[in-house]
Amino acid sequence: MSRRLRKFKIAVAWACGGVMFHKVRSVLTVSGIGLATALLVGTLGFQSGYERALQRDIAAMGYQVLITGKGCPHEAATLILRGGSIPMYIQEEIYQRVAHDPEVSETTRFLMQTLADPRTGSHQLFVGIDENFLRLKPDVAFQRGGWFSDPLADEAILGFNVAEYRRLNVGDRIEVRGRSVVVRGILDKMGTQDDGTVFLPLQICQEYFDRRGLLTGVGVRLNDISRAADFIERVYELPTVQVVRMSQVQGTILGILNGVRMLLMAFGSLCLFIALLGVFNVSLITAYERVPELGVLRALGCPTPTLFRLVWCETLLLSVAGVLAGALLTFVLRGAVASFMRATLAFVPTGAAVETPPGTMLAASALVIVLSLLAGAYPAWKSCAVSPMTSIRGVR
Amino acid sequence: MEILCCFPHDLNPGCPVVPQIEAVGVWKVFQQPGDTVVALREIDLAIERGEFVVVTGESGSGKSTLLSLLGTLDPPTHGCIRFNGEEVASLSPGRRAELRRRHIGFVFQDFRLVRHISAFDNVRLPLLFSEREDGETAARGLLERFHLMHRSRLRPDALSRGEMQRVALARALVNGPEVILADEPTANLDRANAKIVWEHLRALNRDEGLTVVVATHSLDLVPDGRRLVKLYDGRIIADERP
């Protein structure tokens, strides 16, 4: 066995022995570090998961600019993202005018309506769509069946979850406001709000819900996004419309999230600070308790750096154990953290979860370990001041 | 004082050599608030390589203080301590630590074992700051020698007092010292265990040529063939060679 390995084994035996000797103290310290790590990783992980899910949801909508009726455009965009009904409409002729703008590459119009489902107590979302829907959403694929046979057919296309939960298949019939509709197609799982949506031909949806000639919104994809400002300026000349860029919606939502994140980070930092105080306190108590033993090491000729490293090794062990416990806690509690966030935040994108990418985990773990070692440095330094005379005369 | 002596096993009898440990005109005074304690007065003592020295005296006579000075744990207030001819007081604390690490092993009255690690880890603890290549083997060998191998995984609180002192003795020996300084090593032991410890110390001196200096207040079990240094009120009042 090499000398270096032998010394490492002795230091580890010392540190492990110390940690195991004071079980309650060690468990409390490790728990504090673990909780702080979990909070730190959970907060960072949720932000990362939220951003990714939001980007995915917005990309899945397939358009860059949304035109809605007068009101708060961000609220409208958020409701559309979430899958809700907006009591604001625009006239269908707006669509015709927008579609002919030279900057426009693709457009799609839609009408969103909800109906209460008395069996489940939840709401079912219905979206009337036109033939451009699939062109703006290239990722949409049919699991079974296909597109409507006719723009005026009493047919529906079901999102994956609707078909799954209601056990519906192509050819089955569903009832929408007293009308019988044939299931024409079932979409693949998208991981967005489309999974819980029943799609109807636009005109059929307008007819069923008594919204003839009305639209919830028009989604627009531009030829050149850098010229969106000119386009938006022209659209604002139309009466009773609001225009919003989806990138602005993303920015606004992330801005709101940022406030919550800062609050959580502040809470996490406070937890970390308290945990570090715990590390400092425990290391100091341990150093004080071990004065006779450290005195013996001094008497046997232990050099100061070795003594420092030996005491520090115990702090390192506690912090590494704390970080591992924190990582475990993050994995166990990430569902709960995501649920808490959903309950707290006004809008959470579909599928947003606490992500734990290795980079975030490593960075947070390294930060906690370094800070713990700093907290343990003073007690370790105090340990080095022990006189070898304490081995013979005891603590004075 | 001129000290010209030879190692007992020197191949060239008659050559002048310095004592292994030497105290010359040593005083030790402890200053405490409102009180001054003179622990040692005018101590002159030369210990040769391979000697077995028993320092005795009543409680408070200065035995432990003398041992701590000889072991370079504490500097004298006046006078000088030399180890292998080198003046110790002039050395830095780091250099003194190195001297102890390389040359001296300590055994204490209350064992001073580390409570939270096993007997084996206690024995090999000094290897943490040793360059000895065969340290692990030496630690096992010492445990076997002191009949502790079967108890090596136990923590000190699971050992008997006799076993604890034998672990402490093994710890003192693991770095291969030339000198063993033992401060009341049998004071906390029953007669049977005290006898075992004295036998081990004597064997180390006789068989391996280690210099052994033991401070004790009881001469009951002290083996024959030793040098006896008597202290009274911080002074050497007798120095009986075998």
Describe the structure in brief.
The complex is a heterodimer of chains A (396) and B (242). Chain A is α+β, with helices and mostly antiparallel strands.
Question: How would you describe what is shown here?
Answer:
The complex is a heterodimer of chains A (396) and B (242). Chain A is an alpha+beta fold and 396 residues long. Chain A has helices at 3-21, 23-61, 73-82, 92-99, 133-136, 160-166, 202-208, 228-235, 246-289, 291-299, 304-344, 358-384, 390-393, and strands spanning 65-69, 90-91, 104-116, 123-129, 142-145, 155-158, 173-176, 179-187, 197-201, 214-215, 217-222, 241-245. The radius of gyration of chain A is 31 Å and the shape is elongated. With 242 residues, chain B is of the alpha/beta class. Chain B has a six-stranded mixed sheet with strand order 6-7-8-3-9-10, with helices on both faces. Chain B has a four-stranded antiparallel sheet with strand order 2-1-4-5, covered by helices on one side. In chain B, strand 7, helix 6 and strand 8 form a beta-alpha-beta unit. Classes of the chains: A alpha+beta (396), B alpha/beta (242). The interface between A and B is medium-sized, with 31 and 38 residues.
